[in-house]
Design brief:
The chain folds into 2 domains: 82 residues, no CATH class; 175 residues, 3-Layer(aba) Sandwich (Rossmann fold), CATH 3.40.50.150. 45% of the residues lie in helices and 17% in strands. It binds S-adenosylmethionine (SAM). Pfam families: Methyltransf_24.
Length: 276
């Protein structure tokens, strides 16, 4: 995002640049479509994600001592006119990391759709968007269940609870609160899950550890998908502090090569565990 560049400027130039940037963002915002957002890279993917990035940047800006009163007023005005949350059907979400993978998930997960007793494990649930997609499209049988592992902190945790309650499927959702490497070790060490979605911490070592712990919990023949394999490659070139889930996923794929088949390697990576 161009916003990062302002942080390296002299305060006067930065304040002026931010005011112009805000005017531009607001005028373009009304015209932006999901298709246009996706052309900015798979991680941007939707208007909701771009909007959420602008909100996060502006929230940071309000804390900067060098930001002028005029800039802070403009930022507050923008945030009031453009709320961070959006009603999506019956739910409220601030972001959309789901639409970009829906088509692939429908294809890979079709054998699991509507199956009695189907079990899914999700690492990283945030506001519940991917969990709800799974509940509405795959875990449609009343005996199917999802286990959601997350830190469940702040506003996202409140939205997760609200959205799951709205879905009416709350009784089929098990929440495990805490760091995934701790929570996953508390689960019975049995291969019971048909599908595992790894979308929690994006730090290389954490992703590798989640992958190793999850493979033990995946049924033979079960499917595991990692988000954001392509994230680092899609980041803007001047973005310094990038997480590298791809390095963790590649390390896992090498170490576990004898135990799985790679189904797809694109922005997401999907593997199938070999039969017993
Ligand atoms: C990208 S979001 C998940 C988005 C969600 N899967 C969706 O598509 O709607 C990542 C989530 O992982 C959680 N998270 C990050 N590090 C974690 C960790 N070490 N253990 C458990 N959860 C973690 C965050 O709290 C956040 O909610």
């Amino acid at each position: 995002m161009r916003f990062q560049g302002f942080l390296r400027m002299e305060p006067a130039a930065a304040n002026e640049g931010i005011l112009a940037w805000l005017r531009e963002v607001e005028s373009l915002g009304a015209m932006l479509t999901n298709g246009a957002a996706a052309r900015l890279g798979p991680h941007a993917a939707s208007v909701d994600n771009l909007r959420s990035s602008v909100h996060a940047a502006l929230a940071r800006l309000l804390d900067f001592k060098w930001a002028s009163p005029e800039v802070k007023a403009a930022a507050r005005g923008y945030m009031e006119r453009n709320p961070a949350l959006r009603q999506v059907g019956r739910y409220r979400f601030s972001t959309d990391w789901m639409s970009k993978c829906e088509a692939e998930w429908r294809e890979v997960l079709s054998p699991l759709m509507g199956q009695p007793g189907a079990r899914v494990l999700e690492i990283g649930s945030f506001e519940g968007r991917s969990a709800i997609w799974l509940l509405e499209n795959v875990l449609t049988h009343p005996t199917s269940r999802i286990t959601c592992v997350d830190l469940f902190e702040g506003n996202a945790a409140r939205l997760f609870d609200e959205n799951i309650a709205t879905s009416g499927a709350g009784e089929r959702v098990e929440k495990l609160v805490g760091l995934s490497h701790v929570a996953l070790r508390r689960l019975p060490p049995e291969p019971v899950y048909d599908f595992i979605y790894v979308d929690g911490s994006h730090e290389t070592y954490d992703v590798l550890e989640d992958a190793v712990l999850c493979l033990r919990l995946l049924k033979p023949g079960g499917v595991m998908t990692f988000d954001d394999y392509g994230m680092a490659a899609a980041q803007l070139a001047d973005f310094q502090d990038i997480s590298r889930p791809d390095l963790g996923i590649d390390a896992f794929l090498s170490a576990a090569a004898r135990h799985l088949q790679v189904v797809r390697k694109a922005f997401q990576v999907t593997v199938r565990k070999n039969p017993a």
